[in-house]
Recover the amino acids of this structure.
């Protein structure tokens, strides 16, 4: 049911991008990026250990509000993630397998019937073809850390078309705070439905296009409209029901749990002249049977002007 619904929505998006609304020239509007790593959180090198996301936005302009139709504001998204067992040198029996994931996608953002709506598709590549195991090996050699021997038994080469949709609505709580409940559904690399909310206490993100990082759920800014200097506290959490995951395939020692949850907090700073920064901490619950505990992952996004 989820796959069918998202496939229909993706077809509607594709139809929308070819309509008359896009007859005018598109232009580069801006970009956003965020880095997440458990080294910035609990200081360990395990499970959801590291990810980097870059988003490039194109449209006909940005005035601080979403357009009224899909296809008018496009996000080109590239993402790399490394997932690992708790011990990279000698994985324990029952731990999850090493996985490298490299994905490229097209997403669109609009306000439909009063709801912030995001819809898109990614091609997610797994296995040695991504080169992420070689990258991690080179980084460990540079830092004098142990080689990731677990990569020899990693999830194999495959391509996973992945559909993703999110619907949310911002509820103002005064002039400098808002609560934003949301629903997210994905089918492909991992198939799930997620329900959650984000609370923003401050002006960071007002009049901006905020995007969601896949691993932690932290939101990062891609487009801003006259940002006001100052600090902003962000809090959030969500829970998901998971049907399937190519990162925890059936028939293996690490058995997929059908429920996972996340809690997050972060502090954003907006300076004068366009400089800004964000640091967040996210707690991720166990994703497979036998995972001893959850983990803390840190996220960082910087825009420095020199």
């Amino acid at each position: 049911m989820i796959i069918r619904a998202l496939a229909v929505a993706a077809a509607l998006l594709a139809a929308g991008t070819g309509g008359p609304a896009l007859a005018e020239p598109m232009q580069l509007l801006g970009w956003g990026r965020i880095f997440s790593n458990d080294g910035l959180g609990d200081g360990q090198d395990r499970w959801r250990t590291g990810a980097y996301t870059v988003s490039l936005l194109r449209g006909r302009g940005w005035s601080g509000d979403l357009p009224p139709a899909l296809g008018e504001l496009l996000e080109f998204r590239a993402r790399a993630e490394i997932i690992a067992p708790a011990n990279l040198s000698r994985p324990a029996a029952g731990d999850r397998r090493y996985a490298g994931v490299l994905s490229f996608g097209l997403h669109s953002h609009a306000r439909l019937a009063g709801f912030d709506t995001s819809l898109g598709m990614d091609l997610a590549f797994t296995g040695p073809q991504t080169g992420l195991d070689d990258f991690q090996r080179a980084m460990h050699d540079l830092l004098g850390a142990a080689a990731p021997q677990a990569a020899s038994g990693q999830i194999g080469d495959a391509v996973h078309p992945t559909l993703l949709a999110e619907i949310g609505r911002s509820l103002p709580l005064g002039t400098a705070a808002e609560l934003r409940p949301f629903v997210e559904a994905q089918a492909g690399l991992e198939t799930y439905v997620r329900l959650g909310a984000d609370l923003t206490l401050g002006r960071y993100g007002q009049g901006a296009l905020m995007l969601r990082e896949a691993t932690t759920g932290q939101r990062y800014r891609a487009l801003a409209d006259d940002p006001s200097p100052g600090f902003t506290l962000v809090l959030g959490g969500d829970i998901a029901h998971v049907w399937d995951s190519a990162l925890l395939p059936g028939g293996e020692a690490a058995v997929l749990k059908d429920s996972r949850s996340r809690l997050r907090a972060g502090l954003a700073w907006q300076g004068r002249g366009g400089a800004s920064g964000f640091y967040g901490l996210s707690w991720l619950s166990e994703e497979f049977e036998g995972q001893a505990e959850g983990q803390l992952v840190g996220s960082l996004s910087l825009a420095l002007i020199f």
Notes: Helices lie at 2-16, 132-143.
